Amino acid sequence: MAVPLYDHARIYRRRKQEIDAALARVLESGRLDWGDEVPAFEAEFAAFVGAAHAVTVNSGTGALKIALLALGIGPGDEVITVPNSDIGTVSAIHHTGAASVLVDVDPATLCMDPAAVRAAITPRTRAILPVDLYGQPSALRELIALAQAKGLAVVEDACLALGAEVEGQRVGSLADVTCFSFAPTKHLGSIGSGGACTTQDAGLAARMVRLSAYGQDRARHRSIATTGISLHHETDGLNERMDEIQAAVLRVKLPDVPESLRVRRHQAALYAAALGKLCEVPREVPGTRHAFRNYVVQIERRDALREGLSLRGIGNSLSYAPPMHLQPFYAARNPQHFPVAERSCARLLGLPIGPQLDDGQIAEVCAGFVAAAGKAE
Ligand SMILES: Cc1ncc(COP(=O)(O)O)c(C=O)c1O
Predict the structure, then answer these.
(1) Ligand 1 in contact with 195 (CB < 6 A)?
(2) In what order do the strands lie in the sheet with 195-199?
(3) How far is the CA of 181 from the centre of ligand 1 (A)?
(4) What percent of the chain has pLDDT over 70?
(5) 356 C-beta closer than 6 A to ligand 1
């Protein structure tokens, strides 16, 4: 492919020596589990996002589920979220036993519309779960104020938004819990799967640690092998822990995130300049910094354009289309209609972006796009 969407091998080669050394360090230590890499990465990640606590888990979906469970959310409760996201967002809600209540999005940002949230709150609502779509922070200040006024929690899905900012503050310390994904294609990609919850609340962090680790204290579990103490489960627990190998690799890659963000913002500016007259390009909300995990434009005749790009070897994606309420599993149970999300999902097209690409490749995408758009007329 001339311009791939992702190139994991290229990203690996940039840090090959350090990653290989990290893998060897963990393997040679013999400590694949309950070791020092996970707590060390948690401290470094919390510092990066400006949060008091980070709790690692084994996926973004797991982060959302653990956050909701730690807040005591379960059967009989409702959690408000959006239809245009990864299935992990709604399935995390459903796996707690709570019901998801979907609301439409703001056409300018494609993120949760606070007015729609206000109208959807019922006596059963326990939490608001906004998604920072493609890296654009949601209307967090407004949503947090609304949640506080109504006694609700805010669990932010920032799986696409590591490094995004609201008024100079990185996402990660604003909501009650912020959830991140370290899937390989994210800003900070593991070599498998991973995620994290960040929070300012020590009690909530401790509950998330226990829930993700069989409902028991980590230090106690760690000493079982050496001291012979017995298992001691304080809560019902899951096995959603991050492993030592992932944590060691993420520690190598974390310092590269600022450069990845710089490159993405530079590429977004190149795209906006070249394509802004042909299609609707993403607009950064004033007072925020978009993290551009995805660069997603909206255009009529999207499918023809997409075919043209694919024929030219240019990677592209339909990021989170069709929306969740139109996916067979959910549509069959609860037919619903969200005009803004549906319209955007019919027009959106994701283009390659990220530090695996150089400016020449971005220019190639732009030229391919212009040619394909001419043909699609
Ligand atoms: C917005 C959003 N939420 C949740 C997830 C789930 O993360 P994971 O794949 O790590 O479980 C993703 C993954 O792509 C995502 O984009």
Answers:
(1) yes
(2) 53-57, 195-199, 177-181, 153-157, 125-128, 78-81, 99-102
(3) 6
(4) 99
(5) no
